[in-house]
């Protein structure tokens, strides 16, 4: 059964998208929402926190919850989520096209990263992500074949992480990420709908299992106008 705060979150997102509360307007107060949804204040706060995390509102002390411009897709830099999971959360129509799948040449630098002893094969999978009819992400993934065997075009067109966790029974632990802004390559220009944009946002990740085994390297290339990359930071002294 779905948690109540999730259903309230979904309803609030729907109303924001229907422009019931326009950009820069205030959501009803926590007390008003508590009465409207006939629930506890804690449940409302959980729903509002989720709205904030996903870029729909900004909480302003003494003012309330201000509706933000959500016409960008919010990608959590510090999290590890599959494209499928993100699109489900953002409720976006999307499609994945597998452009290429095969084995990485042994002289490739990424091959040496994932197979330092040169004993294992390394998959490469290049996928184009289409959102709302526009091709705006090129994902270039590499996997150690000894850890992630038997990849297929069908698996890659759906969710590789679902395959890893549910079929292979592995637990994905953490990742190191680097974010840069770069000029588009010829491959970017050929596969993405860049529409005159002269930069792409590139996130390079090394992803590890729970036991600290490095199993994946990813280069995810994004058209810059469609994304808001978010992180959580805490000041310490």
Short descriptors:
237 residues; alpha+beta; Arc Repressor Mutant, subunit A; six-stranded antiparallel β-sheet; two-stranded antiparallel ribbon; 8 helices; DNA-binding; transcription regulation; Tscrpt_reg_HTH_GntR; Chorismate_lyase_/UTRA_dom_sf
How does this model look, in words?
Pfam families: GntR, UTRA. This is Trehalose operon repressor. InterPro entries: Bact_HTH_transcr_reg, Chorismate_lyase_/UTRA_dom_sf, TreR, Tscrpt_reg_HTH_GntR, UTRA, WH-like_DNA-bd_sf, WH_DNA-bd_sf. Keywords: DNA-binding, Transcription, Transcription regulation. This protein is α+β, with helices and mostly antiparallel strands. Strands 4-5-6-9-8-7 form a 6-stranded antiparallel beta sheet. Strands 1-2 form a two-stranded antiparallel sheet. A two-stranded parallel sheet has the order 3-10. A hairpin with a 2-residue loop joins β5 (about 120-130) and β6. About 20% of the residues are buried. It is built from 8 helices and 10 strands. The N and C termini lie far apart (about 40 Å). Helix content is about 30%, strand content about 30%. It has helices at about 5-15, 30-35, 40-55, 85-90, 110-115, 155, 160-165, 185-190, and strands at about 55-60, 65, 75, 95-105, 120-130, 135-145, 170-180, 200-210, 215-220, 225-230.
